[in-house]
Amino acid sequence: MKKKSNKPKSITENGEREAPFRLLLAVLLSALAAGLGYAVLSLPSPPPGLSSHVAANLETSGVSNPVTAVLLNFRGYDTLLELGVLLLALLGVWSLGVAPEHHEPPPGPVLDMLTRLLAPLLILVAGYLLWVGAHAPGGAFQAGSVLAAAGVLLLLTGWRPGAGFSGLPLRITLAAGLGVFVVVGVVLMLLGGRLLEYPPSFAGALILLIEAAATLSIGTTLAALFLGGRPEAGPRR
Amino acid sequence: MIPAVLYALVGMGLFALGLFALIVHTHLLRKILAINVMASGVFLVLVALAARTRGAVPDPVPHAMVITGIVVAVSATALALALMLRVSAETGRAELPEEPLE
Question: What was the ipTM of the complex prediction?
């Protein structure tokens, strides 16, 4: 309301709003922060939470790490849709055009050496995080982020995916996480269960299968997002 | 109990600061950074409040939500940055126009 009473262009030379507007905004947002803080302070003291439900059903989930159990078993829908969001973001970036040409200077000896040492190590760490996620902090997202870090490091040193990989193989890798997740869900439905209701005897293996595919997809997607566009050597130029 | 509430309050503060920067600044990169600060505040609130549960293990449900949220925030930021680069390539300015484009 107050913003409208100013002149329509309330932007000064350096692209920032005028002082009275900023003061009013600061007051309003302080009130908002105070209200939110009051809401936190007045939360019920024995918090209801869901940890007792998770602990009660942990045995049937196939993994012993409660966060992984929630992520891939109890709230599997969220993770499924999230992989979809990831793919959608990449589609959005790709639809904006081909990856910009970067003529990066060749890496110095330190960066070159470091990348050669770190890239295999990061892949190893990603595999470890994926495996350890079943019973300790870790899992597909952490492993995928480490994999993406290896990819970003390689991209920074001037490496680009070759023409053989940036076509169909890249697209299959990107879609593998969501694809395996959907296939597992649909097969379980056909076998008489509900969507993503794993039978307890197979749950551990199914979760590891989904997580392995998701790790590859998350790592590749994040690294491809860093590239900032479609890879040029793709078949649909 | 008390440190958890303190962290949650800091998260609220980060959220308000990010919202302030989001409204005040016109440069799109600053707006994207501001949204990321707001997201960090929300994640801090969720993780902090998860530690309020009884027992040694914090509530795993907010933790799973935060892991999901971080990955979504990263990919949304990448999309926003790509859109910003496109806007600045088309108009020469990394800002949204005040009047609608003709």
Answer: 0.85
> B64: distance to nearest CA of chain A, Å?
6
CATH of domain B2-91: 1.10.287.3510
**pLDDT tens digit string along B10-23?**
999 999 999 999 99
For A191, A199, B30, B92, the CA distances from A183, given in Å and listed in that order, are 12, 15, 41, 45
The Cα of A150 is separated from the nearest Cα of chain B by a number of Å equal to 16
Q: Which residues of A touch B8 (CB under 8 A)?
A: 40
Domain ranges in chain B? 2-91
pTM of the model: 0.83
Give the nearest chain B residue to A35 (CA atoms): B12
